């Protein structure tokens, strides 16, 4: 990707503005990461608790640059046949059957075995050529003319072997296919890797990436996020609900509500025509924020005090 | 700025952040791309390439603030320094008045002598009398002091600091020595000389010059203090760790136990990260289409044999047998601590403790944190040692479970109080197990002396080693992890 082609990414300020126009409110740190990733052509490894907008970051970048987003969801057992490329075996088989008859015509008049083989050699490796290659996400990202946004989601769920497979792609933007050779990216894609920290990523992979940790946002930032995502919620309610979520995060919960939950909750409150949070309402909608029965139970007893302390803040 | 970035990375390394040369290059690129104007932006950018875990990021932030605080602050500091100057001037004046008559008299005398040449500045006046002093005043050091040019001064100071190798500072006792060296390098000796001369001449300029000298000294002292905090703290930690890991474990004083535990955790984390490959659990396996077709060529494209991607199953098991009698208990503690600290990598550790009889203590480790469990074990199984009886117990408990994936680690001094060693049991374990490792806290020379049965037991071990400090322990655990991978 050339720097001139994408004026959207020319400075950190412009990135923040650009993201904002697509409804993604980000901290300066995030914008700096995107800026650096673009300038230095390095992948970004995004870590953070679930639901803070790791995947969204890649999506928004693709919207901002109007480039295709190619997504690879990682899971245990993912291998190169699903991530990188696969030969079209069916087609190869079919073609061998069909072309068998043609062989006779081709070899007509050939003197002896040596000459026949020589004639055959002229055709090269037809069956192991690009025509029979089925590109999977990683290879596909390399083949885009204008570049692409490659999102390798939840890389911590994949196996160690898969990580090693990524190394070549991430540092040199190329893929080695034994039958063909090395395929260089036409335009190096911008790569986002996300991780939920279920296990440590190997040092080799980390070394090749910029490391971005997205924490839960501050109250102020989260309010802006809610405003951009759910614009119809009025200001005092927005403040209240964000405050409430923040005090929820301080409780000892199995799964802390993230930004995506805050947004969902804001939407549900909007649907219920809420103007102000009250205990009853919060209790009945807690299931939007909390995903475990235990969490809901332990939060319910705290609802009253949390609401009171928040209104006290105002 | 580049050298200062490299130095900063050195500092980070001394604080246990691992940074490779390639990352250093990345950091340079980042600094180029972002520029040095926005401090926070630069900090975030550098953090992205240099820190790789949230913990490292916290360390990074702390070091960044400490390291670049003075370098960048100096630029904005000049206004503050100017504020400070009049203040210093005031105290100076105060002291003069407090000095009483003699000071005043001297001041009077001066104004009499050199009335015409607008003598606000006694120093310049005095310099008129002495060419040497004039020379000193013209030196760049004095110029920057007198003009309050902080940039020039801090530049000169850091150059001098680099020349005397201030970043090598290790002990707080070296602070004075380094300050002296830097001052000499800056040419403070001339000022000192001039002060002495002025003193002798009882010149009015004395106070003024002294003030500059003290200012310079204070600056240098501050610089040394900061650098000490930055460099030596991390290094002292490393030094301490180094010493502790080489001390015999039963000599480590109680006071350091906490530190040693932390150190064990650290070593274990390192090993776990290195060997922390997820153990494969077998899946049914997918059809390996590529291989099947390639093999099918031989049978005219008919897929005669199918091939699956199979993943092998690997289930290493470690049995740790520890002597917990008085002489060896301290070592057992650390071995167990270590073994359980690498539990992520070696999930199947069973532990046994013995002195005159043997029992399995794995349960204690499941229920309690390691430190507590070790105490309980000592309490339950301490006493005089009987290796023969304990081996019998061990065989009865585990012989059926020992197979080619089992590693048996025995920790003990092999001092059997002249009892029956029951070597035959150890031999049969030796034949069944993948490996038998004997760790002996006594030094090799003492093996076989007195009631030690070590030479005989050694014959039925794949590997016997002396193990009495953390370094050796770490090496052995590493070997263990390597071999069970």
TrEMBL record, chain A:
Matches recorded under CDD domains: AAA
PANTHER family named among the record's database cross-references: MAGNESIUM-CHELATASE SUBUNIT CHLD, MOXR FAMILY PROTEIN
Residue ranges of domain AAA+ ATPase in the record: 40-218
Ranges annotated as spanning the membrane: none
Protein name as annotated: ATPase
Biological source species: Parahalioglobus pacificus
UniProt GO MF annotations: ATP binding; ATP hydrolysis activity
One Pfam family it belongs to: AAA_5
From TrEMBL, chain B:
Biased composition, class Low complexity, residue ranges: 98-109
Superkingdom of source: Bacteria
Region (Disordered): 77-130
Signal sequence, renumbered to the chain: none
PANTHER family (alphabetical): BLL5662 PROTEIN-RELATED, BLR6139 PROTEIN
Official protein name in the record: VWA domain-containing protein
Provenance organism: Parahalioglobus pacificus
